[in-house]
Amino acid sequence: MDHAQLKALAAVVREGSFEKAAAALHVTPSAISQRIKALENRIGRLLLQRGTPTVATPDGQILVQLAEQTALLEHDALERLGVQDEARTHASISVAVNHDSLATWFLDAMVLFAARTTATLDLQSEDQDHTISLLRQGAVLAAVTARDEPVQGCRIHPLGSMAYAPTCSPAFHERYFSRGVNAASLAQAPVLVFNRKDAMQARFVRKIIGDAPWNPPVWWLPSARAFVRAALAGLGWTMNPLPLVQDHLDRGELVVLRTRMREEAPLFWQHWRMRSALMDQLTDAVLEAAARFTRSARRG
């Protein structure tokens, strides 16, 4: 297959439009359109669903994955050949990371990776239960996921787990939970929820009220660190990652709703199977950073 056509397809899916893909590849939108059309004619199938954003069809996802893997292997080959920096293809690995890992330990993995390579990462932040979808679609080459079953064609590495606890400010607890954490109080107390995919708060509540209706006031707040600030400010209660709030709990700035009702979210690193030195380096950095984080969390 024509490398330029595959590269154009991957750019359109990554950037979301023909215009942005053209800017990223330093060509005209017309050139991108011609390359996509030629590739679709060659394959005999529709590869893109035009829209806002433009996304790959199931057939297109297969070729996007091929394009991303090809770019990575090309970088490895030029590295082994010792091609000069100015002629070497710049490498950027597409990775999906859950929000809380990005707010806690994953930056350490990025630092380790940067110290060992000249490549960069193209990160997409998503809920840990949904990063795996990006991996299946071929939109990313690797992901931090909550699933212990490998995607077909991928390798999986356990990373340990992230501990969560239901937390709120002391004043909020006094206002809403002074008579206990039960169906009545949970129905009245505002809750902080990351987005419509975030089911962690609901899972905690179901352990207390079962299948009874639960329709509390909701603050939709798509930021892990803003979650902590909002809880400290008394806006609502939420399931916060313990590494982000342990200091606040120790100082009494936050309290837990129920001390023994924590939730452990196991995390895994999955990446497409390929003989790539660059992917091996990234995997080593991720495993090392996750191990440091897990040891630190256990000591805490």
From TrEMBL:
Gene3D superfamilies: 3.40.190.290, Winged helix-like DNA-binding domain superfamily/Winged helix DNA-binding domain (1.10.10.10). Signal peptide: none annotated. Coiled coil: none annotated. Residues 1-57 form the HTH lysR-type domain. Keywords: DNA-binding, Transcription, Transcription regulation. InterPro entries: ArgP (IPR017685), LTTR (IPR050176), LysR_HTH_N (IPR000847), LysR_subst-bd (IPR005119), WH-like_DNA-bd_sf (IPR036388), WH_DNA-bd_sf (IPR036390). Belongs to the LysR transcriptional regulatory family. This is LysR family transcriptional regulator ArgP. It comes from Coralloluteibacterium thermophilum.
